[in-house]
């Protein structure tokens, strides 16, 4: 994770995130404009991998900017980093699906915004 | 010409995002779903409208201003949404009946 590749990693993440937003926005807009109540709201607990506040803040922001998910806060956790994020998801079929996509996003945020394993 | 069409598409799409958020505000029934809808729309709607207006009248200064405006808008919309959701949890607002709150304990309160 050298400083030199940081711009490219951030650019790649931006592209991926834009795609994710377009995909999930479709589901949300469809649900709003049709009579159906497709929403299955739930609160899930995502144990955080990184201890860095910058990573936590960035992940919380990207989760909130994704249509259908909202970060509710950070709580203490028994896991390795001692922190977990509470996330409100509206359109995932079950908690496992929701957590899987959140973990994928966390992995990508850490890959894009880390320099030598640390925060920016 | 191509930029014109693309710019118009961006601006109109941004408007549709705002419309969806407004309809969502009325139809959704708890602070969490509403904050979710508004935070996303405030970020993406403004981003699309600003990017579209730059495409309609392209210039280097306009592009620089647009990038700054979009970054600031995305950051503030997200943080505002998180603050609203967190405030609602801390002040004990109920989730709607269909919400599965299995992960949230009775006296859970985020400490920051």
Automatic annotation (TrEMBL), chain A:
It comes from Bogoriella caseilytica. The keyword Flavoprotein does not apply. Belongs to the CPA3 antiporters (TC 2.A.63) subunit E family. Keywords: Cell membrane, Membrane, Transmembrane, Transmembrane helix. The keyword Cell membrane applies. It is found in: Cell membrane. One of its GO terms (cellular component) is plasma membrane. This is Multicomponent Na+:H+ antiporter subunit E. One of its GO terms (molecular function) is monoatomic cation transmembrane transporter activity. It comes from the Bacteria. InterPro entries: Cation_antiport_E. It is a multi-pass membrane protein. Transmembrane segments: none annotated.
TrEMBL record, chain B:
Keywords: Membrane, Transmembrane, Transmembrane helix. The chain crosses the membrane at residues 6-26, 38-56, 62-84. Residues 97-112 have a biased composition (Basic and acidic residues). Pfam families: PhaG_MnhG_YufB. Residues 93-112 are annotated as: Disordered. InterPro entries: PhaG_MnhG_YufB (IPR005133). One of its GO terms (molecular function) is sodium:proton antiporter activity. Belongs to the CPA3 antiporters (TC 2.A.63) subunit G family. This is Multicomponent Na+:H+ antiporter subunit G. The lineage of its organism: Bacteria, Bacillati, Actinomycetota, Actinomycetes, Micrococcales.
